[in-house]
Amino acid sequence: MPTDTPQPAFVLVRPQMGENIGAAARAMWNFGLDRMRIVAPRDGWPNPKAVAMSSGAGRLLDEAQLCADVPEALGDCTYVFATTARQRGLTKPVYSPERAMQIAAEKIAAGEKVAVMFGPERAGLENDDIAKANAIISVPVNPLYASLNLGQCVLLTGYEWMRQSGEVVHETTDLGRKGDWATGVEVEKLVEHYEDRLEEAGFFYPPEKAVGMRTNLRNLWSRMRMTRSDVQMLHGVMRQMVRWKERGGE
């Protein structure tokens, strides 16, 4: 059975290729969506090509609701979006995928049942299909090449649903298995190590520029957020350079 997670139903209207249905299932499951409804698939149902393309998301296909027509697929829904890349001459609100999924999340949280219709690959939804929708989702694409594959359109919409309904981490840093950020004390010890060795090497010359050079060097260190491993390695670099020089290195 589908999960209990509140979510919109994705309705594939007259899809033509089993491979695209499978790709749509895979895209849906990437973002935790598992309410698929399939309206009058051209090549019949079930479709082995859809299963092959679903790549582990075959459960969605097993549980997909097969519908004879659009009214059957939308029968229990209170709000419906229709995806299209073309102007249709119908008076309806038009939303980006991001805004549409914001509205979907609000309505579902209020107890409504929401559906998103996706049209067949060749020409998309017909005007009669879109007339049954409350609003349109229009993906901002290159106007010179506005054609989107069914799986791609489902993926875009699913991603925006995840952004609105899930906890999306927009930036993180992988510190590795033994990684940990260096503390201020550890960085300060590294700075002192380098300043002492550079002072011995005569780097801070001429004397009247030494203060500014030290400031610039410390500013460089502060721009480099380092892990403890980084600090240890840089200590080792300087120690080895000093040993090399003491052995008569040129």
Strand-helix topology:
Blueprint: E1 9-13, H1 18-30, E2 36-39, H2 48-54, H3 58-63, E3 65-67, H4 70-73, E4 79-83, E5 94-95, H5 97-109, E6 114-118, H6 127-130, E7 135-137, H7 150-165, H8 184-200, H9 210-223, H10 228-246
Parallel strand pairs: 1-2, 1-6, 2-3, 4-6, 4-7, 5-7
Features:
250 residues; 10 helices; elongated; 45% helix; 7 strands; single chain; alpha/beta; 7-stranded parallel β-sheet; 11% strand
Task: Provide a descriptive summary of the structure in words.
The chain is of the alpha/beta class. The protein is built from 10 helices and 7 strands. The chain has helices at residues 18-30, 48-54, 58-63, 70-73, 97-109, 127-130, 150-165, 184-200, 210-223, 228-246; strands at residues 9-13, 36-39, 65-67, 79-83, 94-95, 114-118, 135-137. A 7-stranded parallel beta sheet has the order 3-2-1-6-4-7-5. Strand 1, helix 1 (18-30) and strand 2 (36-39) form a beta-alpha-beta unit. Helix 1 runs parallel beside helix 2 and helix 5 crosses helix 7. The longest helix is centred in the C-terminal third of the chain and has 19 residues, at 228-246. It starts with 8 loop residues before the first strand and ends with a helix. The mean pLDDT is 90.
